[in-house]
Amino acid sequence: MTPAATARDMILTNAFPTPVSMPPPDPPRILVVEDEQDIAELIALHLSDLPARVTQAHDGAEGLRLARTGDFDAMVLDLRLPAIGGLDVCRELRAGGSPLPILMLTARNSELERVLGLELGADDYLAKPFGVLELQARVKALLRRAARQAAPVVAPPEPEELHMGPLHVDRARRRACVGDQELSLAPREFDLLWHFMRHPGRVFTRADLLADVWGYGHDGYDHTVNSHINRLRDKLGDRIGEERGSRFIHTVWGVGYRFEVRE
After folding, report:
1. pLDDT digits (tens, 9 = 90+) for 171-194
2. What is the distance between the alpha carbons of residues 131 and 208, in angstroms, rounded to a whole number?
3. Paired residues of 30 in beta bridges
4. Residue 174 CB: number of other CB atoms within 10 A?
5. pTM of the predicted model, to two decimals?
6. C-beta of residue 59 within 8 angstroms of C-beta of residue 86
7. 118, 226 in Cβ contact below 8 A?
8. CATH number of the structural domain spanning residue 178
9. How far apart are CA 23 and CA 46, in angstroms?
10. Into how many domains does the chain fold?
């Protein structure tokens, strides 16, 4: 081979470098806490198809211990567990400051369990028996929300406190008051109120609120928005007479909700 040919080959080789293949991202890690082993195996099987790495626990004490390690991206939590009940597991995690997204599994007719779970900080619920596609969709939605919250976003700094009429909300201390009365708000209820107060007068659809407050936007999740708004309205004392409607959160029929203070 001549020196000229060698030089030409070197130039061509450098001009078209061999592409470097990037390793695939690690699949999310999901903790399934379910005492009925056959159901736990079925859930794990279908979540593995997302794909995901699934770890199982079959009682509340083991589930709580694993969740506290911080090794998981989401948790599927049955509420009726031996040793420690699912509601207590949720309460302990939130009291310790854990942001782990939690999908509760509840009995179909147990409205009280669903309400208590959401009050204690669970992100969503799924009533038994449930379909595989819905389970997968809800878990993927929780994972998207967690990724969105973890991603760095360059945005103008938000105020630490908001005052509107008798409402005072302190974001840093997670406190909300109507006049002199402090409200006892679940984490998602506080986030919802803060979002409304940051955008007074704007009309939000349920899909808007799911995307902005929960971090996902899928059809079929209206019940999540409705239940949180109903409880938030109750805690705000949001009624000033049937002829005048709500005091703070107003229904825009056929569209969604608007926040506006009416004395």
Report:
1. 989 999 998 999 999 888 999 999
2. 25
3. 54, 74
4. 12
5. 0.58
6. no
7. no
8. 1.10.10.10
9. 24
10. 2
